[in-house]
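Worked example 3 (structure in, sequence out).
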């Protein structure tokens, strides 16, 4: 079992009468890659600042290797941060920015050069050491900020949207670099992004945030396959979400019909929401289909056709199909029982986990 290195227990933060973090409970184990994922204003940066020691929390405890650190100053926490606004030293060149922390720690001069060079190489900035910060693009500055933090090899690295200023190609390269670095050095990463694909690709575990609360935590596969509620299903990947009710265990009604599903543990007739992912829907004839829809529009996306269609109740259906459809045509949609994911309307994460455990693996 891995050691818990950072532990937030019932952490809340309020500014005046506005609560921006509500009862946050997060356990971070040594050596893993964690991501805080959520929309703008959901509290991601606030959590990093609380862990780094740049703000006082209103309630709750922050533990580092089991010791409460609420009152430990930022510079005495074994944590390093890549800030959302980079926070580079504008009067120093690239090399000196990256070397700064090593010099403070009185690292050997010859070692400093090697380590700074290695860090700059990792962020694809070899040869930029003499440049002034003002002579760099936003994406280059962002990479200097990453180099400055990783060169110190802290136990925990907090990264606040560290790739947001990079173009798609460089961003992808840096994702591989960060993941590789994290695994090679065994540093614990707490990474912030509002890009769900990035979170799914990089993380061992994701905390999905909304409105100052953790909505769901789990592996990328768990969160994608078993979203706890409408917000998570909608935010992670693309989803069709329709209202229905649970007829009995493993039998759900929506769109005027009953369907076999793999979900259980709800009350009879309980109202629910049903998630079907666009890639799990196939287009067939009306007779062979489970849901009848009229194709409205389609876009060619390279590796699939993105089709928008409407059923008779006016619900919109998003379909990712390998073959094109005809606009205006009425077609049937099919899907498997396993592709139906049923969500209760207001289930706590605790109840959700317990319910899944009670019937999964039966
Ligand atoms: N000093 C402050 N005083 C009052 N409200 C604040 C302060 N700092 C942050 N907030 C509020 O706290 C909430 C959470 O902010 P936070 O910066 O953590 O969001 P975020 O998830 O990092 O968003 P983004 O993706 O835009 O960076 C926001 O509604 C923000 O307006
Ligand atoms: Mg932020």
């Amino acid at each position: 079992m891995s050691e818990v290195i950072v532990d937030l227990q019932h952490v809340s933060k309020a500014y005046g009468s506005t609560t921006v973090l509500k009862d946050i409970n997060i356990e971070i184990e040594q050596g893993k890659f964690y991501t805080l994922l959520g929309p703008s204003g959901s509290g991601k940066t606030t959590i990093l600042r609380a862990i780094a020691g740049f703000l006082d929390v209103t309630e709750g405890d922050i533990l580092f290797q089991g010791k409460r650190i609420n009152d430990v100053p930022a510079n005495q926490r074994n944590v390093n941060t890549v800030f959302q606004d980079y926070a580079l030293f504008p009067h120093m060149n690239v090399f000196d920015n990256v070397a700064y922390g090593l010099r403070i720690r009185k690292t050997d001069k010859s070692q400093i050069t090697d380590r700074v060079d290695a860090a700059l190489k990792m962020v694809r900035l070899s040869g930029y050491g003499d440049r002034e910060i003002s002579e760099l693009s936003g994406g280059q500055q962002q990479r200097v900020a990453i180099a400055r933090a990783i060169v110190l090899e802290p136990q925990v690295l907090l990264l606040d949207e560290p790739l947001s200023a990079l173009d798609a190609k460089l961003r992808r390269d840096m994702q591989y670099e960060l993941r590789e670095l994290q695994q090679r050095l065994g540093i614990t990463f707490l990474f912030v992004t509002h890009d769900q694909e990035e979170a799914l690709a990089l993380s061992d575990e994701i905390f999905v945030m909304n409105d100052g609360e953790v909505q769901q935590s789990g592996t990328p596969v768990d969160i994608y396959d078993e979203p706890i509620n409408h917000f998570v299903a909608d935010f992670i990947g693309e989803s069709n979400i329709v209202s229905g009710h649970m007829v009995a265990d493993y039998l759900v009604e929506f769109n005027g019909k009953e369907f076999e599903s793999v979900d259980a543990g709800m009350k009879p007739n309980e109202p629910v929401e049903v998630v079907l992912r666009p890639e799990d829907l196939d287009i067939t004839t009306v007779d062979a289909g489970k849901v009848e829809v009229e194709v409205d529009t389609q876009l060619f996306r390279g590796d699939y056709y993105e089709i928008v269609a409407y059923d008779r109740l006016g619900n919109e259906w998003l379909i990712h199909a390998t073959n094109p459809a005809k606009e205006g045509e009425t077609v049937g949609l099919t899907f498997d029982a396993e592709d139906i994911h049923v969500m209760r309307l207001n289930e706590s994460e605790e109840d959700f986990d317990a319910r899944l455990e009670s019937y999964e693996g039966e």
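Notes: The two ends are 26 Å apart (CA to CA). DSSP finds nine helices and 20 strands in the chain.
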